Give the backbone structure.
Amino acid sequence: MIESVVTHNHQPIIYTVIHDAHEHAHNLTDWQQHYDQISAGEFYGQIIERPFEDLQVFKEHTSQALSQSCLVWPDSIWLGISPQLQGKQNQSKINGLSLNSNDIMCRPGNIEFELTTPDAFDIYGLVISRDKLLNQANKQGVELNWQDILHNERLSIPDNTLSAINFLLARLLNHNATDSHGTPDHLTQDLIHMGLLEIFSKESPNQTVHTSYQHRKSIVDRARDYLHQHHERAITLSELCEACHTSRRTLQNSFESILGLSPIQYLRYTRLNGVRRDLKQAKTGETIGDIAARWGFWHLGQFAKDYKNVFGELPKETLK
Amino acid sequence: MIESVVTHNHQPIIYTVIHDAHEHAHNLTDWQQHYDQISAGEFYGQIIERPFEDLQVFKEHTSQALSQSCLVWPDSIWLGISPQLQGKQNQSKINGLSLNSNDIMCRPGNIEFELTTPDAFDIYGLVISRDKLLNQANKQGVELNWQDILHNERLSIPDNTLSAINFLLARLLNHNATDSHGTPDHLTQDLIHMGLLEIFSKESPNQTVHTSYQHRKSIVDRARDYLHQHHERAITLSELCEACHTSRRTLQNSFESILGLSPIQYLRYTRLNGVRRDLKQAKTGETIGDIAARWGFWHLGQFAKDYKNVFGELPKETLK
DNA sequence: CTAATATTTGCCATAATTTGATAATGTGTT
DNA sequence: AACACATTATCAAATTATGGCAAATATTAG
């Protein structure tokens, strides 16, 4: 991991690079995050972050598909803007809802939400305190629609607004774009505030929800609860169906539409990630076999093979 | 209200008759109940109850359809046996699940459950402490299937077992059946214990659950929450649909299959029952108009007409 | 109380979803 | 590497949800 803090005459830029999804999840200042890697290949993650007063701006790159659980600090609003949704639409989901190419994501602080992101994913993030945002809105005479913001995770933004915002953020956060670093902080902040207000005044909530969403979401939630409670045991699909009072086929449809994975894939990835977490902080004396068994892996040969396939290294290498 | 306690040389028999569903709900010793009357006509209710040590046996008659919310004391098991389900099957529901003619109802203590009962309904009730039941089962070498008992509200019982139990209970609880009153208590209790064990050894859970049940139940639950939170305001059907993220027709189907009432019927009955409750315990100075308005009734003429139609008396008569 | 208006319900055709059987594929085990 | 077993894909049939419309019912105004 390389971590460099470039200090100019103003706020620092924090730059982190990391090769593990779990560690990467902790590198965003003041966020509580939990990442599970759900595609095969060595992970590479990078964050460029600029903290201001009451305002956080960052760019995040993640090389592998992830299932993220995120929580921002209270009394704030987060916006997530992915510059390359066009190509990868329908692969990113927030709370199980697919994004259209012109959608940005929006969630208030202190409420957990889930993100499913594909491999080779880039996203800009903006977090601002609610009070600050309200102040700015008042000052500029912009009316904010809190109902939209609080109840819709996806906001559709017109093309030109979106590209303007993307340009602004790119200028601010590209590591090589030194030109922006000469700008005084207060001017940069003003620019961002204007951008935010522009977004909120042009936004219209994306309410395209399939009728099946509610039902499928509730099935997946129940299934995940159940799997979580029994993570040390081998759960069969039929058992899970009974626990969720549903049929195999519906369980599968639900998982695929909400998480983009089949139930068993989800189960396997969750467990492999669990093992990896435990391996990273294993006490001396704990064996790989112990830890693997805690997560329901009984056949170490097969396990090691799968583990290496996903994380690019063998369990014993993780254990150091 | 007539209440007579007939004392013999052993346990008393408690006999209550009442003309109001809400009061009736409180007359079962040690139960927490909340009844809403959901059919039109003057209410008449009757309970015959025999309390024993660790065991309660009763018969209940209710003249009007009811939506009941029930809670038995902790560490107990309740059985509900309706002798006339044959004719009225599909009209009685427990937690929104319809009963077949050979089903009895079963719920553990300390867990709230809901009953929908038709007009002119009779039911026998048996409550026994868990420990007592386990003791008896051990003593008789009967194995109890706790999973069935805890997770299934409906147990199917063979015809002959059912009639035997019905006969036993009728003998015990028919007001005129004086012959049983000569039997010493401990013998009666033994008979009941044997009956219970017979039931639990012959029982097979009724797991006929329509696939739509889960979904519809959750819609109805959400809808009721919403209605409960806004009981003082007039809620329109479309508003409720939005709140529940569902369509008009689906909301209606859900209510009809879970509660046996349309959403608006449910709403009206709930409110009329609410007013009646408040009227019964109104402070001096409160007017009918005040109380009615609290429950969303703005047109007193219409309200009085509906109220009389359901409860058989005008609001002012209830107010005393 | 009655008439005018609005809401709700029942019914229907259509669309969407769920289901279960079977075939194909993948996984764990020896 | 090969077997047995479990999972996933495919498809047609069954179930369920939806929305329009007309009839029934309820609300409001006079």
Summary: Chain A has a mean pLDDT of 85. The interface with chain B takes residues 209, 211, 214-215, 218, 245-247 of chain A (CB under 8 Å). The first strand of chain A starts at residue 2 and ends at 6. Residues 2-205 of chain A form a domain with the Jelly Rolls fold (CATH 2.60.120.10).
